[in-house]
Amino acid sequence: MRLIKNDIMSFSCTDSCADSVLAAIENLCLIIKEYPDVISPFSGKNKEIEGIFRIRGFRLYSTIRKTMVFYDSASDSFFKIIHPISVRQKILFRIMNKAKSLYKLSKTLISKGLKVPEIIAYGRIKGGGQHFIVMKRLTGESLHDILIEQKKIIPKKVYFETIDEIIKIHQNRYWLRDTHLGHFFVNDMKHYGFLEIDSIKREPFPKLRNKARDLPGLAHPGLTLSDEEKMTILNHYMDEMDIRNRDDFVQMVKYYILRKSRDKKPKYNSVYGGIIEKLEVYADEILKNKERVLIAVAGAAGAGKSHFGKYIRKNGLGKFDKKCVAVIDDSVMWHNSLCFFHRRIKIPWHGVDELKPFFKKMPGYKKIVFYMQANPSLRISEADILLKLSADENVRRFRLMKRYNDKPHKLDKFLNMKEIDDYKIKYLYMLEIKF
Fold first, then answer.
1. How many whole angstroms from its chain centre is CA 371?
2. Tens digit of pLDDT for each residue in 74-115?
3. Spans of the chain, pLDDT less than 50
4. Predicted pLDDT of residue 263
5. Is the CA virtual torsion 271, 331, 334, 284 positive or negative?
6. Of 80, 153, 278, 286, whose Cβ has the fewest other Cβ atoms within 10 Å?
7. What's the whole-model pTM score?
8. Which of 209, 290, 296 has the alpha carbon at shortest distance from 254?
9. 394-413 burial, b for 16+ CB within 10 Å, e for fewer?
10. Which letter, b or e, does each residue of 177-214 get, where b requires 16 or more Cβ atoms within 10 Å of its Cβ?
11. Sign of the alpha-carbon dihedral angle for 285, 286, 287, 288
12. Nearest to residue 138, comparing CAs of 159, 117, 119?
């Protein structure tokens, strides 16, 4: 490896790194020096930035905010810049070398016979803290270009070769995390490799749900396969991976297919909007006579209590900022402190204690307290507001399978849990919401 430093960046390149790659990196340095803001994070396409890169011989691709991808025809290689978006990522990027870890990952996977891009150079951009990698181009075309753009029909063996490559990755205790058709490359009607190296993650303790998360592409409408043929490929995967609870695994794959079919992640604000407004009005009214509002959130396991609590922790309650809101989920309260650090306070329950142990540790500015529990009456006898959550049985089942796939005894227990009609607690207001 050769280490090269200049005013713009420091980078390392392999012995096989051609002069054309070094020239491309030099061109990138000139772009950054002349237009420092050109590598700022953005989503989709930017015609102005695209034009700046085109002048220097780069082809910029549409991408997400945390990465920037462009191709250099002279060196026949891809560049990928990784942006630290959050405060946590900015600190981690200064401590660790993300680009170097991706280089080592690529080297390890190739040594195991897995088809991933070879990283020939990596480095760090000074000032902005971005890391970048340079990859050899995978020959051929992506499945997305072949099936969706060109609308061609490919042999069934290509699908089996692709699933076999996913099997190899899973057997080596890795998972892909981002299985878009554009990331699988085919050359001469044979599977050639997986492009998205930075999404691959090591999995020391394999989880069934992570394997299922890599398979929703089987249901893509662009695949030239019948439902029976898709099921045959899935059965082939389950045979090779020795999946025992096949029915549960198939249900789990269907769950991730449903999630993948959405254009974006569910907008909880649109789901919770009406209930948030009502809770805000009730809380405002109660705070005229009390210093603190207690909202009990009840519902069977898998009804969405934790999802709702997560939304409240991140967004607050209407006009009430998240700093004024505390969320106690079962026996755990997350307390925000020092920017992005969250302190976890766990106090097991021993009967009805009205949450007094939590209130002792709670700052005075916490005006609204949410208590999430399947049966709140186990710990409290009264609340200002009772919010009942319920979900469609199939949705609830998918959530529980995702959560407890490796704990069958807990899965059976919670699947058989029935909704409680009378929670036996006193309250001023009661609301219900079903997903």
1. 26
2. 998 999 999 998 888 888 888 888 999 999 999 999 999 988
3. 263-270, 339
4. 44
5. positive
6. 153
7. 0.64
8. 209
9. eebbbbbbbbbbeeeeebee
10. ebbbbbbbbbeeeebbbbbbbbebeebeeeebbbbbbb
11. positive
12. 117
Number of other residues whose CB lies within 10 A of the CB of residue 234 = 19
Longest distance between any two alpha carbons in the chain, whole Å: 76
- The values of phi and psi at residue 55, to 5°, are -60, -35
Radius of gyration, CA atoms only, the chain: 26
**Residue 378 near residue 352 (C-beta atoms within 8 A):** yes
> Which tokens hold the place of 344?
């976890």
Q: Which two tokens stand for residue 103?
A: 């280089």
Strand partners, 190: 187
Q: How far apart are CA 209 and CA 252, in angstroms?
A: 7
Model confidence pLDDT, tens digit, residues 278-326: 899 999 999 999 999 999 999 888 888 888 888 888 888 888 888 889 9
Rounded CA separation 397/39 (Å): 44
Write out the two tokens for 407: 């704990």
Q: What local confidence, expressed as pLDDT, does residue 344 receive?
A: 78
Report d(CA 236, CA 243) in Å as an integer. 10
Cα dihedral 16, 21, 26, 29 sign? negative
* CB-based contact 357:333 (threshold 8 Å): no
User: Which of 293, 283, 287, 299 has the alpha carbon at shortest distance from 383?
Assistant: 293
Reported residue count of the chain is: 435
The tokens for 242 are 């020795």
